[in-house]
Amino acid sequence: MLNIALPKGRLGDQVYKMLSSIGYECAAIYEDNRKLVFESPENGVRYLLVKPSDVAIYVEHGAADVGIVGKDILLDSRPDVYELLDLNIGKCRLAVAGPNDYIEDRDNVLRVATKFANVAKDYYSSINREIEIIKLNGSIELAPILGLSDVIVDIVESGKTLKENNLKVLTTIVPVSARFIANRSSYLFKSEAIQKMMAGLQEVLSRDADSQS
Questions:
Q1: CA pair distance 63, 43, nearest whole angstrom
Q2: What is the dihedral of CA 7, 9, 13, 16, to 10 degrees?
Q3: When you count CB atoms within 10 A of the terminal residue's CB, does the N or C end of the chain come out lower?
Q4: Is 125 exposed, middle or buried (CB count within 10 Å of its CB: 0-12, 13-18, 19+)?
Q5: Is residue 185 predicted with pLDDT exceeding 90?
Q6: In what order do the strands lie in the sheet containing 45-50?
Q7: What is the pLDDT of residues 24-46, one digit of tens each?
């Protein structure tokens, strides 16, 4: 069976619908319980429900053969996996944001609050800007409000949270969407099964694109 690391939440629900539509359904996944592993031997899959930020770890270390993870996590954690397909869902962007009245002081080190430390370092290195990273894991928007940082680097979807906290996007670093990834060894030894699943997902994407055109 293929072990699939499925992110908990809305993204995982979207991906499961895609997979079930191409023959990888697992009825038990809708049972009202606290199980985290769901098997469908007849369809050759085992779903592992994991925290979105942990998907790449499960895949990299072989606990899962394939998984679905946001590009933001791949850019920041840099796991040793194969990135096979852009699923064109879970779209958002990694961006620099700051107070509505923010004016940058180029003479001082820029204080950047973020949970995406590597993304922030890479971006500011590319524009030769000296920064101090303030690593946070939640409520990033609070940092500039309380004077902990000058700006933040974070995921932006609608921008509503920023607006409600008197913040705005200053620069978009990179667009983000969900990616289909595979463990390197699994891709070698379960190549046929993974390729078949990927081909099915590509068909779904093509179908969706045709319906929107």
A1: 19
A2: 20
A3: C
A4: exposed
A5: yes
A6: 37-40, 45-50, 2-7, 66-70, 178-182, 82-86
A7: 999 888 776 788 999 999 999 99
